[in-house]
Amino acid sequence: MVTGLDEFPIHQAPLPVTWAASSDRNFYDRSYFNAHDRTGDVFAIFGHGYYPNLGTKDAFFLVRRGDEQTAVHLSDAIDDDRLNQRIGGYRLEVIEPLKRLRVVLEETEGIAADLTWEGSFDALQEMPHVMRAGSRVTLDAQRFAQVGTWSGSFAIDGTEHVVTPDVWLGSRDRSWGIRPVGEAIPAGAPLVPEFEGMWWFYLPLRFDDYMICLIIQEEPDGHRALNDCHRVFRDGRIEQLGWPHVKIHYASGTRVPTRATVRCTTPDGEPLQLEVESRLAVPLHVGGGYGGDSDWSHGVWKGPDFTERLTYDLTAPEVAGRVMFGVIDHVGRAVCSEGGRQQEGWGLFEHGALGRHDPSGFADWFTLAP
Q1: CATH number for 111
Q2: SS3 of 190, please?
Q3: Which of 33, 302, 360, 368 is deepest in the core (most CB within 10 A)?
Q4: Helix, coil or strand: residue 345
Q5: Is the pTM of this model over 0.85?
Q6: What tens digit of pLDDT does each residue of 321-363 get?
């Protein structure tokens, strides 16, 4: 169906803009945000997505405070008004593209938010990300990332958190393309070799003078399938930081990282080292809808105008036992050492060690750190 978007010269295929150029049922278009006050006391993660070939759109707002993680989910039938991004009481307003955004969650199941984002540096276009299972494409996506500050407030059951940009920081990304969404589909013939896991590390960090964004994905034998590390300066300059060497330190008896050491190289060959520590961990697959979430999955049809609230005790055995089977987002405090100078930064410390990973000493899905 032709919409107002088709008045603009933005077409990439001989189709109306609201129709996906790919017929793949897993086509998606989504936004991710996080916000924290640097204390490690609270971490909010939220986002929304459109799934044209599944006829759905959805959103979530996930907050961890102490050992409690609370999620609100919203879902509805997709519409053609893509200039007004709204799912139930959740909406995104683009005030100034790539710079200022507003996220509003009208009171839903006891949770409400009104938060305005200000990008601190230019958004960074990341490398294309492609994954295959045999000959089948399972992921083919483009993303951009940005770090920034938040202002406004959010409330949970009447407890309000006032958000000011001198304290509250975060990161965001926009991604679109192909990734597993919606209801499970028949697997087809067994994979040869079978899927043994993946190791993922994502690190968008905000410093006073620059942003550093690192993405690494490794296969079970340690082969690096994705390596992307850039620094963005306030004047818009972008430099590559080579082939980072990473050491993840895990809490004993878990796969939950406590800190990471990252050794990079600047374009002139000088060393740059990052020491990153976790201040608070949020497993994305416990209420966030990301891979391995047994309660909520992005793109699943829930019926019109759907909402629900789920609360988790992260110390409960049935919840704690799920943590190592998905990706965990952490409030990350970082120290960057370069040329005898140190600078403190904050951002997202995202990591998942799923299944076998020889360099980490994980022999299978159930091996834990010593």
Answers
A1: 2.40.370.10
A2: coil
A3: 33
A4: strand
A5: yes
A6: 999 999 999 999 999 999 999 999 999 999 999 999 999 999 9
